[in-house]
């Protein structure tokens, strides 16, 4: 069985075997990947650091506080790949907590041309907790409009549509308990909520060949723990986590009531999902990509086309047997390079398919050569909808952004660029590839600000709206 010990052994042995002296030869890179003249003039050489306190805002996880920092080594201007790579080495670390019980700690390393070879090495070790993870079901049924009863009462008027705040307001009222309960009333405040904890280690190697092609192989090891807030029917709920404050539908006064059965528990009891208690999920990812982007952290031009296959097997120490397929394309285009070189049109489209004994929490996870994507819904895919609002065996999504860099200045010898980013997102889910159609997509839109620090660190501020919600996001990095 694989473990973190095996992961660290692999981190030592694989570089020794693949990064041989014979690989230290010139790579015939696609000319489109060369940085522009202006970017080269502004690019720093040698070591430098960027770090800042993190004040994040997310409607699911709440307000977050912490710190994130990167240590860069850009190398020298005489280095063979100085004009092609965003940095030579990058070490990263972050730690933050949120007001709604989410913690995240991560250490990363990335070298696009390790030891001046054609190989790239990326590693990440992380631990995360989210006490407010969201679950709305699996499949195309999640595409239905929000549905709830007035003041959460069994005899209340059934309402369709509306916003998430309307649903949350309805669920804030107590209701008569489910059959078999020893309590007369219960709360549904946490009906769509569960706790998710994960320890994860990833290690990926890819190689550039034929100028702009890349193959990649990446083992990933994770241990997940899942807990719901349901109280056991017929038993006394002694743990305070099993209670929530709910309002009396007649008076509006709030009191503490035991939590009712959650959506996650209902689906588990009905045999609709796997992985209700978590478990070990180990992957091997392999992929092929065509990458002509000129500057990966904030591209002006080029495309990324990729196809990936992921396997989780009990032979590799996983508790589940399933497969995933993911393909996506990103494009970056300057429509008026001579007249308006600070304007970039950026777009992305992705399609993801899972089959086998897939844990419910893994349907949302899409692995890309650029890093993991969690959706559909939330910051990385469909801004304006709640995180992981739509989940199914097949997920399709797209994003379109207009990135206008409207100001550049120096601050304490640091280069800062400001970019205005209006955007439009769309996506939907299907139960399988036989159901794919062009109808029934969900849409959202909004405007963002990017604060680009020394070219490679991007601070993101996005405000998004959809038919169900409006959201403010503060994070690090472009979403694609």
TrEMBL record:
Gene3D superfamilies: membrane protein fhac: a member of the omp85/tpsb transporter family. This is Peptide-binding protein. The keyword Membrane applies. Keywords: Membrane. It comes from the Bacteria. Residues 27-88 form the DUF5982 domain. InterPro entries: Bac_surfAg_D15 (IPR000184), DUF5982 (IPR046024), TPS_OM_transporter (IPR051544). Residues 207-465 form the Bacterial surface antigen (D15) domain. Its main location: membrane. It holds the Pfam family DUF5982. It is found in: Membrane. NCBIfam families: Omp85_fam.
